Amino acid sequence: MKNILVTAYTSFNVGDDLFLKILFERYPDHQFILFTSETRYISHLKQYKNVKVDYFSKYENHFFRIAKKTFSAQCKLLAFIYKILIKRKYGNKCDAYLEIGGSIFIQKNKKLSFKEYKNKYIVSIFKHKPLFIIGANWGPYKTQEFKDFYTNWFNNFTDICFRDKTSYNLFSKLPNVRNECDIVFQLNLPKVQKERESIGFSVINLTERNDLSKYEPIYIKTISSLISTSLFRGKSVYLISFCRSEGDELMIEKIKSCLSNYDKSRISTLLYKGDLESFLIEYTRIESIVATRFHAMILSLISKQKLFPLIYSQKMFNVIQDIQFKGYYCQIKELSQNSSDDIFNQIEENKVFLLNNEKKSAEKQFLNLDKFLNHG
Questions:
Q1: Residue 19 domain-assigned (yes or no)
Q2: Helix H segments across 233-335?
Q3: How far apart are CA 281 and CA 193, in angstroms?
Q4: How far apart are CA 35 and CA 17, in angstroms?
Q5: Shared-domain flag, residues 211 and 318
Q6: Which of 239, 238, 246, 245 is nearest to 204 (CA)?
Q7: Which of 47, 63, 248, 282 is the most exposed place for a label (fewest CB within 10 A)?
C-alpha cells in the first residue's frame, strides 16, 4: 500500500468531485491524503475508507492567515512559508504527489502568482518522489514567462496527462507529457429511463468572468426565452446548478426573474449539494441538455442525451473538435438578440452523439499512475 498526497479543486463542483470519485474508487488498496481548506469534504468523502481528508491545523491555519495578511503582495515569500508548512506536514508521509483537476493552469495576471511559486516549492518538497498531474487543460495565458515557467516546471514530473490536444501541443516536446480524453468519459452512469419531452439548462454565472461579463444580459435573455418556448411546446424544464460557490444558483435566480410567475411555477431546479449519486440519477433522466458547464457537456455525451453545447470557454470548443462532435452548438460570445428561435430549432434537430474510444482513452489518464501503484 502506498500513500499519495492529492490536491484538487474542492468547492463542491460536480466535475471535480467526479474526478475524486473516479480516482478513489480506482485504487481501493492505496491510501490517499486529500489536502484541502474545505473541511466539509471530511463528511463528503466518508464512504471512502482509503481517503483521509486533511488540512492545516488550527495553529497552522492561524499562522498562514497572518502570513497572507503580512505578505499579500509578496507571492514568493508567502509561497516559501507555505512550503515550510507542507514540508513539515507531509514531507516524510507520502510516497507520491498528485494534482488532479481541470482548468488549473490559467494565467489571470501578467506576473507570476502565488500558485506558480507554490507549485515550484511543491516540486522541491517531493523532488525524489513520483509527481503526477492528471486531467488538466493548460491556459489561457498572457505572457511567454508564464509558459516558460510551466515548461521548466513540468520537466520535474513523472507524468502529465492533459485532457485536450491543444494543451498537449504546447508542451509536446516534453517526453513526460501526453493527452487523453477527459477523466469523466470513463464514468459508469446509472441506468435510468429518460423523461420524454424534458429539457435541462446547465448554467454558469458570468458576472465574475472578465471576458464574458458583458454578455450576461444576452445570455440571460436567451436562456429565459428558450425556457418560455420549451414550456409553450409542452416540455418539462429543469434549471441545473453544478457549483453553488461559483454562482450557478445565483444565475438560476437571475434567469427566473425574467420569467412570468406562471412559467416560474412550472420549472424544476436540480442543484448539486454534494450528493453525487442522487444528482447523476436526476441529471441522466433528462432527455435534452443545453450545456454551458463543461462537465454537463461530458455527462450528456456519455448518458446519450440530446446535447446542445453553449460554449463559454476554449476548453469546451477543444473537446468538441477532439471528439468531432457533429451537432449544432453556439459560443456565448456569438449570441444575438434573435438567437433563441434558431437555437431552439437546432436543439430539436440535434441527435444523440455516439462516442467511440473516449472511454478507453479516459482510462489511460491513469496509465502511469497505474504502473506506479500496482507495479511500482
A1: yes
A2: 248-256, 261-265, 276-285, 294-302, 314-322
A3: 10
A4: 14
A5: yes
A6: 246
A7: 47
Collect all residues with Cβ–Cβ distance below 8 Å to 27 and sequence separation of at least 6. Answer: 50, 373
Which pLDDT score is estimated for 329? 95
Find the CATH number of the domain harbouring 291: 3.40.50.2000
Quote the DSSP letter at residue 53.
E
Q: Hey, which residues does 98 pair with through a beta bridge?
A: 6, 132
In order of 151, 244, 253, 255, the CA distances from 258 in angstroms are: 47, 20, 9, 6
- Given this model, what pLDDT does residue 161 score? 98
pLDDT of residue 171: 97
> Per the domain annotation, does 362 fall within a domain?
no
Same domain, 129 and 252: no
Q: What residue numbers bound the domain in which 272 lies?
A: 195-349
In a domain, 315, yes or no: yes
Average confidence (pLDDT) per 10 residues, the chain, 376 residues: 96 98 97 96 96 93 86 87 93 94 93 93 93 96 96 97 96 98 96 96 93 94 96 97 97 97 97 97 97 98 96 94 94 86 90 94 98 84
Counting the structural domains of the chain, the total is: 2
Contact 285, 257 (CB under 8 A): no
- Going by the DSSP 8-state scheme, the letter that residue 248 receives in this structure is H
pLDDT score for 376: 56
Whole-angstrom Cα distance, residue 119 to residue 188? 33
